[in-house]
Q: What sequence folds into this?
């Protein structure tokens, strides 16, 4: 039997499952044993299932993951998904109240440690990582999710303060956190790094030169990290989402929720859970498999700037 199975779920069962609040469901199926059903939602009748041996492996090892930008969006969804796999979680972000709220929620499923810092502040990053208790230092999985977009202007009208925010978080922040975590992975001879890039890192679009450049840097860093770290038993995965409906556009448009909402008019965008599901797919791959690079688009999106709207 393969690692993944496709199972048809009857509609009455689908309605029951969709009433669950979590983005994944641990259940029991005849002849399959315990399985993890992922990525349900909408009207889909198919679920990808991770079989019992993979789930048991994760639980027995009590894998430890550090997630930046865990307070919302993709970071939060990833924390929720990994908690169901019984990863111990180090949740990082700037907004302490949100981190503590999420910590309380996930503590019912796994152990959680909170670190409050801004990835743009190198000394804060270093202090936070070195402050981890001894039993929280052996990080198996690093999810470099923290990042932002500010403004949507042609280069001649761009705001240098916006440029600094994007470059500092999207590039330098990723570097600072990776530099603090990777030596431990190298010394242990194992680990996995997931970097959140963007379709914008692969396809530059007008009025987004600096944001696109920052995500192109993530693409290059993912490739470079893979070259440097594979020899030490460390996997590197680059995830490049297209249009995902999170707080991303609200931040880009300085809190203008109406303008942000129009980005997603006329089509069904990706959700944070869609990206979290892909991250789970990558980090649960067998030891001999590296999911190196994944581009994820909404079904209505053909490129960074081509979206077919109804």
A:
């Amino acid at each position: 039997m393969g690692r993944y199975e496709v199972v048809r779920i009857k509609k009455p069962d689908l309605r029951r499952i969709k009433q669950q609040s979590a983005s994944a469901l641990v259940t029991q199926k005849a002849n399959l044993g315990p399985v993890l059903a992922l990525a349900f939602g909408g009207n889909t009748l198919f679920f990808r299932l991770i079989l019992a041996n993979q789930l048991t492996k994760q639980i027995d090892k009590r894998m430890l993951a550090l997630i930046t930008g865990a307070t919302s969006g993709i970071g939060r969804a990833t924390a929720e998904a990994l908690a169901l796999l019984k990863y111990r979680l180090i949740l990082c972000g700037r907004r302490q109240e949100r981190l503590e709220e999420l910590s309380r929620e996930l503590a019912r499923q796994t152990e959680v440690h909170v670190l409050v810092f801004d990835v743009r502040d190198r000394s804060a990053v270093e202090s936070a990582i070195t402050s981890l208790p001894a039993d929280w230092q052996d990080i198996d999985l690093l999810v470099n999710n923290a990042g932002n977009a500010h403004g949507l202007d042609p280069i001649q009208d761009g705001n240098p303060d916006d440029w600094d925010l994007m470059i500092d978080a999207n590039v330098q922040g990723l570097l600072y956190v990776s530099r603090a975590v990777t030596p431990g992975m190298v010394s242990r001879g194992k680990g996995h790094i997931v970097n959140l890039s963007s379709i914008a890192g692969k396809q530059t679009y007008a009025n987004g030169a600096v944001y696109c450049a920052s995500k192109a840097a993530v693409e290059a860093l993912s490739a470079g990290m893979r070259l440097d770290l594979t020899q030490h038993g460390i996997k590197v995965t680059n995830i490049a989402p297209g249009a995902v409906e999170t707080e991303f556009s609200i931040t880009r448009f300085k809190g203008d929720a109406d303008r942000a909402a129009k980005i997603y008019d006329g089509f069904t965008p990706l959700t944070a859970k869609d990206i979290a599901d892909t991250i789970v797919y990558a980090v649960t791959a067998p030891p001999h498999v590296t999911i190196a690079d994944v581009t994820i688009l909404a079904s209505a999106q053909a490129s960074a700037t081509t979206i077919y709207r109804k």
